[in-house]
Amino acid sequence: MPHALVLAVLVVAVVTTGGLLAPAPAIAQDSITVTSWGGAYSESQRKAYYEPFLQKTKIRVLEDEWGGDMAQIRAQVQTGKYKWHVVDVETDHVLAGCDEGLLERLDYKAIGPMDQFLEGTTHECGVATISWSTIYAYNADLYAAGAPRPTVAADFFDLKKFPGKRGMWKSPKHNLEFALVADGVPVKDVYEVLKTADGVARAFRKLDTIKSQLVWWEAGAQPPQMLADKVVVMSTAWNGRIYNAVVKDKKNFVIVWDGQSLDYDWFVIPKGHPQKDLALKFIAFASTPEVQANQSKYISYGPTTKKALTLISPAILKDLPTAPANTKNHFRVNAKWWADRREELTEKFNAWLAK
Amino acid sequence: MPTVLRPAPLAEALGGDTVPLQRQVRRVEARRTLRAVGLVLPAFAFLFVSFVVPILSLLSLSVQNPELPEVLPRTAAAIRAWDASALPSPEIVAAFVADLRDADRAKTVGRAGKRLNYDISGFRSLMLQTARDLPPPETPAPRLLEKLRALDERWGDIRYWAAIKRAAGPVTDFYLLAALDRRRDVRGHVVQVPTGDAIYVNALGRTFGISFVVTVVCLVLGYPIAYLLAGLPTRVSNFLMILVLLPFWTSLLVRTTAWIVLLQPEGLLNDLAVFLGLFRARVPLIYNRTGVYVAMVHILLPFMVLPMYSVMKGISPSHMRAAASLGAGPLLAFWKVYLPQSMPGVAAGSLLVFILALGYYITPALVGGASDQMLSYFVAFFTNQTLNWGMAAALSVILLTVVLVMFAIFHRVVGIDRLKLG
């Protein structure tokens, strides 16, 4: 018996070692790793970018997921061991990463003509891929047929007309501006008011009026879940996630576009990547108007090239954050301003949270 | 001459070896010690290199301040002599402008701007804008300051220059002070941060409070379980032990999310309570401190039960019987005989649960409210999101120091050698 066992172990060992030492297949397919935020968004990128890219260039796109922790990019750049070719980041990350020297400076000659992009969608360290916005949505099931429904930003803070818990992102970003807009500040003056200490205090005072009813979310998938579970009656959320819950999961959520804040997501390359040219190829492909227009079929985020807007069907266009009907009272997130004030306001926000 | 029987020297009896016995014994002992050290040395070296050295180097980030000495070297050197009583001298300003010009070319201004932004909000864009619009190189040094002030009036504010001075050295106490809700003012004195901005000391207190409560609840719940398991016949107790260990085999996030489903206002527990008529309205069991306690106790209970079980297993049942035979009632016997013998396990389990609870942040973040954030949440936030590793390291140093102090007190009072993990 023991001899048989020893023999069996030896055989297994030899076979595994043999397998490990086997020569690699003769043709290694080129592949790049694109990292994004997961969920419905990653799926839309898969259908609109990765699969067509594979068909066109025979370069396979491996997907990875992250949640915005810049530490991963920094670790890769500092150690020189790169896992990711391209990363889908938010505006904060582009500015911070560029400051720290963590991102490659993009060669726009390899990507495309600068004037094909909408204003504000190009940066030396990244190129924008989608426009998305933070809105608030409510569960229409909770409202009887004739009952009044929330329609403006101020309704989010109106506990008398619309009682119940609200969900908000656990970050000062968007919440402070949204509070000011709900308090009556015109959208074009939001950042002017927020620059002053009085403005910040005013925003926190407005948030105080609903603080006891607030439930804080940190992941994009939480608001649709909380709305469906009736944990909250309304919640701020990223518009694409709500749209997907409505269309795919047939939930009866309604988006309130009033007071929406528009922002972009960007494609960046970690600095010093040895296969930078492959990464640039992907970014160039993803920045072509036809390809961008295709993505809006799968998720309601807008493109960043002018021509793509003309290629999208009107039925889809009306759900995009940049549709005229939705941008009547909106503001662009001022990422440069946040890059300056973020630490200070995050500390104030955390201190306010703990009170 | 009468033969005196005296014991022959051992050496002679052993065959006439002349080396004294003491030296032989010492040599054997030394060889044994050397062998023991030699066997342990590889493991110790591995632990040291892979565990102690990385942790120490990360903790040292809490005092490291490389940004300004690397990006603005001349300024860092020149400003150290400045006493912050008046605006800096032309030499300092000239060094600053020259450094900024080089940094702009090397595209490293952002690094310095980010570091200074930690101190004064808005410094980042000030640095970037100034670097883009510097006065031409041939400007005489005495005129540089007024040119900078014309660019942005903040350059005439002594606080900004004081911030540069504070950030100039290769080491800094900025992060450690900030982790204790303190900062240095213009003249360099340590002052407290305004109460509206003080977070970390409260968070530290809250972390210890929550961990303490979780430990106590785990102890109260776990002691009877361990007692029961230790008293049952092995087969039954093994089966029940599987039930205790089952949570270990599920992912932490899955368990936490399961609690969200159970404790929600529309969740199973509330549904059951309303159905049975226990509560009239739905009780908020989640997104508050209750939810945090429930979820953390559930996750940490096995860590309490296992050490206690293994210690209790070693307590012979005859001790209790002996106490009974000497006239002690069950309660007295338990108090005088069983409990003291189980203390090493209790101490081990409590320490384990307490230290683990200190490091938890995902669970409180998911099931707790805004005022339930624990310190590790901020450590994770600074490490992952804002890449402010100095702050993350400083908070870790504070946490580690407090824990070590507590451990030292624990050792004084209880004694580590009395701990038994089984």
Summarize the structure in words.
The complex is a heterodimer of chains A (355) and B (422). Chain A is 44% helix and 18% strand. By secondary structure, chain A is α/β, with parallel strands linked by helices. Chain A has 2 domains: 31-131 and 264-317, D-Maltodextrin-Binding Protein, domain 2; 133-261 and 331-354, Periplasmic binding protein-like II (D-Maltodextrin-Binding Protein, domain 2, 3-Layer(aba) Sandwich), CATH 3.40.190.10. In chain A, strands 1, 2, 3, 4, 5, 6, 7, 8, 9 and 10 form a 10-stranded mixed β-sheet that branches. In chain A, α2 packs antiparallel against α13 (289-295) and α4 (91-99) crosses α16 (335-354). A two-stranded antiparallel sheet of chain B has the order 1-2. Chain B is flat, with a radius of gyration of 32 Å. In chain B, 33% of the residues are buried. Chain B has 3 domains: 18-61, no CATH class; 68-168, no CATH class; 200-418, MetI-like (MetI-like fold, Orthogonal Bundle), CATH 1.10.3720.10. In chain B, β1 (182-184) and β2 (190-192) form a beta hairpin. The chains are: A alpha/beta (355), B mainly alpha (422). The interface between A and B is large, with 37 and 37 residues.
